[in-house]
Write a structure and sequence with these properties.
Distance between the termini: 12 Å
Strand content: 15-25%
Mean pLDDT: 81
Number of helices: 3
Low-confidence stretches: none
Order of helices and strands: HHEEHEE
Helix content: 40-55%
Largest sheet: 2 strands, antiparallel
Number of strands: 4
Length: 102
């Protein structure tokens, strides 16, 4: 999904729901941490909460060396789509060399 399409889809999703909080937010953070560590292209993961309603959770991954950007992106996209996202309520795109999700 192109960045303008992604931003529009993200805004649409955000307008249809309330931001997660409490146990729901903590649960998603724990899931992000656990599933990102399972990716074969990741050697380090850091997950944190923010006060920004546009990005309540930020996950930073350090890839294993000698992996292409395309391979890293495809692996993280697979984790998102198969293990983390709500299939009925999802948007993701590739922004600035990385993947972003809503």
């Amino acid at each position: 999904m192109e960045s303008s399409e992604f931003r529009a889809a993200k805004q649409r999703l955000m307008s249809e729901a309330f931001p997660s909080s409490g146990g729901y937010l903590d649960g998603m953070s724990m899931d992000l941490d656990a599933y990102l560590w399972l990716s074969p292209v990741v050697r380090e993961v850091k997950v944190r909460h923010t006060s920004d309603t546009n990005s309540l959770i930020v996950a930073t991954c350090v890839p294993i060396r000698r992996r292409s950007e395309a391979e890293i992106g495809a692996s993280l996209e697979q984790v998102w789509l198969q293990d983390l996202s709500y299939r009925y309520f999802e948007a993701h795109g590739h922004l600035g060399g990385g993947a972003s999700t809503a």
